[in-house]
């Protein structure tokens, strides 16, 4: 793959992140019982099946497995910063976005601002008109809480 982007095609990480979001959203309805079933769910997700980039698929798998493995800690951060909102009341789209972005903020080297921006972009694509503000508010508060 060439290192230069062509046209307006999104980068590998954004594509992988979008696939990961879609898998996580699907898991909010039917959870895979174990890691092997989760890996199969990733590979058979329509968004992943349509993806041509092996790098994007690998990145998506890493994100999904990371979110699922660290979900308790991630949910604790969401709970701490989502004032007056219990996890059960947060829409599945927003919850999947928050979990994904917080995983990146907490367990990877992505800058917090970049993770927040990616979350807002996902919210614009998959959420409603209020999603981006909700996502921004919680992720921004979490970023301050997590430190630089």
From TrEMBL:
- Gene Ontology biological process: DNA-templated transcription termination; transcription antitermination
One term of GO molecular function = RNA binding
Task: List the InterPro entries.
Answer: NusB-like_sf (IPR035926), NusB_fam (IPR011605), NusB_RsmB_TIM44 (IPR006027)
Q: Which gene encodes it?
A: nusB
Segments forming a coiled coil: none
Per its UniProt record, what SUPFAM superfamilies does this chain match? NusB-like (SSF48013)
Q: Residue limits of the NusB/RsmB/TIM44 domain?
A: 17-144
Q: What top-level branch of life does the organism fall under?
A: Bacteria
Q: Name one GO cellular component term.
A: cytosol
Its biological purpose: Involved in transcription antitermination. Required for transcription of ribosomal RNA (rRNA) genes. Binds specifically to the boxA antiterminator sequence of the ribosomal RNA (rrn) operons.
> What's the protein here called?
Transcription antitermination protein NusB
Q: What are the entry keywords?
A: RNA-binding, Transcription, Transcription antitermination, Transcription regulation
Record-stated family? Belongs to the NusB family.
Pfam families linked:
NusB
ATP-binding in keyword set:
no
């Amino acid at each position: 793959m060439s290192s230069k982007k062509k046209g307006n095609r999104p980068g590998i990480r954004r594509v992988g992140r979008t696939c990961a979001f879609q898998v996580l959203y699907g898991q909010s309805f039917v959870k895979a019982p174990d890691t092997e079933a989760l890996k199969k769910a990733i590979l058979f997700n329509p968004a992943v099946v349509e993806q041509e980039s092996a790098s994007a698929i690998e990145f998506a798998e890493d994100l999904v497995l990371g979110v699922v493995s660290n979900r308790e800690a991630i949910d604790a951060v969401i709970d701490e910063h989502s004032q007056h909102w219990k996890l059960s009341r947060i829409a599945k789209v927003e919850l999947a976005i928050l979990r994904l972005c917080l995983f990146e903020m907490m367990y990877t080297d992505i800058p917090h601002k970049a993770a927040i921006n990616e979350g807002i972009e996902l919210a614009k694509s998959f959420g409603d008109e209020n999603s981006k503000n909700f996502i921004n508010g919680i992720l921004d508060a979490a970023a301050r809480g997590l430190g630089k």
